[in-house]
């Protein structure tokens, strides 16, 4: 399973990219707003850091507006993926853009039916939101599992991005459930790196070394 970083913060993106563990980035209007920067400026900077799929989301709500915005987003860089919300208007936009060769990521997916519809419209990626489903006391991972099973049975090539990831266990479970990618916030990437036994082991190595060689 591959990892995308779910942020518009270029310092975090640079740091994760240097570790060689991310192969793309996802943004959304909330994440861009959090940085308080111009959309085009921040997206261009991200494309200069990571050489992989970068999702930029449309904000229009009608198909025509989404298509216009989507074409502009796609023109920013060859790696751009146009993120489109899972609505009837969104599906119309995915159909047009995918016919033009523009790659799309259908976001705000909360059911296997929505994922199937997005795939049929031509979506390159679908993003089921785990955490937000868990938040309403339902099982977000079950949706990922079902989508992966259905896509597998029917040979559907649309890639599954496990999104709205809230903790490291989500990542492991998403991998087991068959997600192709997990898009993860920087904080969770850092949590995935850490293990108390790694820290303890390092302390022991240092202490043993110093005991013998630094007398
Ligand atoms: C996915 O592409 C979204 O940007 C993101 O995962 C949403 O996560 P949240 O529910 O933590 O806002």
Explained architecture:
This protein has 215 residues and is of the alpha/beta class. It has a single domain (2-213), classed as TIM Barrel, CATH 3.20.20.70. It is 55% helix and 17% strand. It has eleven helices and eight strands. It has helices at residues 10-18, 29-35, 39-49, 63-76, 88-99, 112-121, 130-135, 140-153, 168-177, 186-193, 196-213; strands at residues 2-6, 24-26, 54-57, 80-85, 104-109, 125-128, 159-162, 181-184. The chain has an eight-stranded parallel beta barrel, surrounded by seven helices. Helix 4 crosses helix 5 (88-99). The longest helix has 18 residues, at 196-213. It is globular, with a radius of gyration of 19 Å. 39% of the residues are buried. The model has no long low-confidence stretch (mean pLDDT 97). The structure holds erythose-4-phosphate (E4P). One of its GO terms (cellular component) is cytoplasm. Its main location: cytoplasm. Pfam families: TAL_FSA (PF00923).
């Amino acid at each position: 399973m591959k990892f995308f970083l779910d942020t518009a913060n270029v310092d975090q993106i640079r740091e994760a990219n240097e570790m060689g563990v991310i192969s793309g980035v996802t943004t959304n209007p909330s994440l861009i707003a959090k940085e308080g920067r111009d959309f085009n400026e921040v997206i261009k900077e991200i494309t200069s850091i990571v050489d992989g799929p970068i999702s930029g989301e449309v904000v229009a709500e009608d198909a025509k507006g989404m298509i216009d915005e989507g074409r502009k987003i796609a023109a920013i860089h060859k790696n751009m993926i146009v993120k489109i919300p899972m609505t009837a208007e969104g599906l119309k936009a995915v159909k047009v853009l995918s016919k033009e060769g523009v790659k799309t990521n259908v976001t705000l997916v909360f059911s296997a039916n929505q994922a199937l519809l997005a795939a049929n419209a031509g979506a390159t990626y679908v993003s089921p939101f785990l955490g937000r489903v868990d938040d309403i006391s339902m099982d977000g991972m079950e949706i990922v599992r079902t989508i992966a099973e259905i896509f597998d049975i029917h040979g559907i090539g649309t890639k599954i991005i496990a999104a709205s990831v809230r903790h490291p266990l989500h990542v492991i479970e998403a991998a087991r459930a068959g997600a192709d990618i997990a898009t993860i916030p920087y904080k969770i990437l850092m949590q995935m790196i850490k293990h108390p036994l790694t820290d303890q082991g390092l302390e022991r190595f240092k202490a043993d070394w110093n005991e013998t060689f630094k007398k």
